[in-house]
Amino acid sequence: MKKIIPLEEGDYYLTPEGYRCFTEQYHLKRGYCCESGCRHCPYGFNKNKLKKK
C-alpha cells in the first residue's frame, strides 16, 4: 500500500492551465521516482530516453 504524504506549502503550485505541479520538495518527501516524467524530478529520470524509434 502506498504511503499518503500530507501536502504542505511549497509541495506544489498551480500551472496557468490549472493543473497541480509537484515540486522537487514534494518528490524528495515521497522518496522514490514514479517514472512519469515529472517536471521537477530530483531523481534524474528522463522519459524521452525510454521512447523507441
What's the layout of helices and strands?
Layout: E1 12-14, E2 20-22, H1 24-30
Antiparallel strand pairs: 1-2
H/E element sequence: EEH
Beta strand %: 5-15%
List the total number of helices: 1
The overall average pLDDT, rounded, is 90
Question: What do these coordinates show?
Answer:
- By secondary structure, the protein is largely without helices or strands.
- 13% of the residues lie in helices and 11% in strands.
- The chain has a two-stranded antiparallel sheet.
- A hairpin with a 5-residue loop joins strand 1 and strand 2.
- It is globular.
- It starts with 11 loop residues before the first strand and ends in a 23-residue tail after the last helix.
